[in-house]
């Protein structure tokens, strides 16, 4: 049987899970190979040189060899550690939510260049921004677009009438905005003028510009609801848990635990150094 040559690919580490006593299975997202599961051998050992190169929510260059059932990481070079994501609870929460969406929507051995660039751009912005939630919302709109579920915001999805900012509804199952007449007939959830304008602005603006927009609590809650329903519509049949809201709550718990663990480790190191 001919020997399969190792693969080299750039990838973002979406997540990892333990394997045995010393190894981890890393879920990588590659622009040319889509979602790849690969074993990182020995990375749970204290002196592992590879462990720092396969951290979740980091970008690297990887060598992969085909094993019996999974790839094996033969070497790894960290390109972007994005340490700011790991040091801040809110950034970690939003980054995990974006990684979860990519994880769910990507197949193995599938070209994913556009989505890879979107995730990379969003994580880079997330590492620098003071508005992590805004970056994740910007990512979500473009993710929906790439999945073929771009919300219609210019014309009523039921009667095709042009819509202004007032009196509209929003119906993800129908594909977007509902005009005042159709909304008055019982179609769609209320779409307030501020959120309607914000959705349009986010659609045409850069992530940096979107992150500068201040959103009050009521508009923020409404916007999250509409985006969540749109995501559930887009990922119907591919969701691994009951709702995206539960995933966000789980991501926040993981994010807080990760930041807490990192802080505790740093304190322990400082304590040992002081002894």
Distinctive features:
single chain; about 280 residues; 2 domains; elongated; disordered C terminus
3D structure, described in words:
It is a single chain. The chain is α+β, with helices and mostly antiparallel strands. About 45% of the residues lie in helices and about 20% in strands. It has nine helices and eight strands. Strand 6 (about 170) and strand 7 (about 175-180) form a beta hairpin. Helix 2 crosses helix 9. The N and C termini lie far apart (about 60 Å). The model is unreliable at about 240-245 and about 260-275 (pLDDT under 50).
Short description:
The chain is built from 9 helices and 8 strands. It has 275 residues and is of the alpha+beta class.
Low-confidence stretches: 239-245, 262-275
Q: Treating each run of at least 4 consecutive H or I residues as one helix, how many helices?
A: 9
The biggest beta sheet, please?
Answer: 5 strands, mixed, barrel
User: CATH superfamily of the largest domain, please?
Assistant: Nucleic acid-binding proteins
The total strand number stands at 8
Beta-sheet strand percentage?
15-25%
For the biggest β-sheet, the strand order reads 1-2-3-5-4
Q: What's the mean pLDDT score?
A: 87
Count of folded domains: 2
CATH class of the largest domain: Mainly Beta
Evaluate the radius of gyration.
Answer: 21 Å
What is the name of the CATH topology of the largest domain? OB fold (Dihydrolipoamide Acetyltransferase, E2P)
Q: Which structural class best describes the helix and strand composition?
A: alpha+beta
Q: Give the proportion of residues in helices.
A: 40-55%
The N- to C-terminal Cα distance equals 58 Å
Give helix and strand order, one letter per element, not per position.
EEEEEHHHHEEHEHHHH
Shape: elongated
The CATH architecture of the largest domain comes to Beta Barrel
């Amino acid at each position: 049987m001919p020997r399969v040559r190792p693969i080299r690919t750039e990838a973002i580490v979406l997540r990892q899970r333990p394997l045995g006593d010393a190894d981890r299975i890393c879920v990588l997202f590659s622009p040319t190979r889509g979602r790849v599961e690969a074993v990182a051998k020995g990375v749970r050992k204290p002196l592992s040189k590879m462990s720092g190169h396969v951290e979740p929510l980091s970008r690297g260059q990887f060598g992969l060899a085909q094993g019996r059932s999974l790839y094996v990481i033969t070497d790894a070079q960290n390109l972007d550690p994005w340490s700011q994501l790991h040091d801040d609870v809110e950034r970690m929460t939003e980054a995990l939510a974006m990684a979860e969406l990519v994880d769910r929507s990507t197949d193995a051995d599938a070209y994913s260049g556009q989505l890879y660039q979107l995730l990379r751009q969003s994580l880079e912005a997330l590492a620098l921004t003071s508005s992590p939630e805004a970056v994740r919302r910007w990512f979500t709109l473009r993710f929906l677009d790439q999945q073929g579920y771009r919300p219609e915001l210019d014309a009523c999805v039921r009667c095709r009438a042009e819509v202004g900012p007032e009196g509209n509804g929003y119906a993800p199952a129908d594909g977007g905005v509902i005009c005042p007449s159709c909304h008055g007939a019982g179609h769609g959830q209320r779409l307030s003028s501020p959120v309607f304008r914000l959705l349009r602005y986010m659609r045409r603006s850069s992530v940096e510009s979107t992150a500068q927009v201040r959103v009050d609590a009521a508009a923020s809650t409404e916007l999250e609801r509409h985006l969540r329903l749109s995501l559930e519509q887009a990922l119907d049949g591919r969701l691994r848990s009951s709702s995206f809201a539960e995933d966000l709550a789980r991501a926040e718990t993981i994010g807080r635990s990760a930041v807490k663990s990192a802080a505790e480790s740093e304190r322990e190191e400082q304590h040992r150094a002081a002894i």
